[in-house]
Every structure is written in C-alpha cells, then in structure tokens.
Amino acid sequence: MTVEAAKFSVSHPDRQLTCQEAVERDLLEIIDKANMHGWGTVETMDAIEDVLRNLRLAYSEDPDPAEEPIIDARLFLHLHPTDEG
C-alpha cells in the first residue's frame, strides 16, 4: 500500500480532497481483503470507523505520536469505556 505525497500546502483549499483521494485506494483494498476473509463490507466499514474514532480519541490525549506510540485501541477502550461497554 502506498499513499501519495501531499501536493498542496496546508492552507490550500484542495488539500483535504487530495488527502481523501490518496488514502481511498488503500481503504478500498483493506475492505476487499476483509471481504475475501469473510467479513462483510458494511461491518468492515463500521470497524474502520470505530478504529478511527478510537485513534482520534487517543491522539487527542497524546497529539505527538513521535514521543510515544498510540496506545492499542483495546487498551484505550478498557481505560475509557463507552456507554456501550
């Protein structure tokens, strides 16, 4: 999997769109691989959304990943239980 380098400066209006385009191919590949291993498309997309939400929460607690790796999402959920569990 390869994500293309950013083409625009941070303030460029098309930067977010090109970032989406840069990661979409790899996300589609992940979904395809999950399908081949018996996971449904919607459940895979739901899982990706949950993982991203957990990563965003972890990042909000430690915004500099260079200092410490982001904690495992399972540990994060254990330390910060949601209303669902």
Explained architecture:
- The chain is flat.
- It has 85 residues and is mainly α.
- The chain is built from three helices and no strands.
Oligomer: single chain
What share of the residues does DSSP label as strand, in percent?
under 5%
Integer-rounded radius of gyration: 16 Å
Overall, the morphology is: flat
Could you state the order of secondary-structure elements as H and E?
A: HHH
Number of helices: 3
- Major sheet: none
Distance between the termini: 33 Å
- The helical percent reads 55-70%
pLDDT < 50 stretches: none
In total, the number of strands is 0
Broad structural category: mainly alpha
| Mean pLDDT metric | 84
Task: Supply database-style keywords.
85 residues, mainly alpha, 3 helices
List the helices and strands and how they pair.
Layout: H1 15-36, H2 41-61, H3 73-79
How would you concisely characterize the structure shown here?
This protein is mostly helical and 85 residues long. The chain is 59% helix and 0% strand. The radius of gyration is 16 Å and the shape is flat.
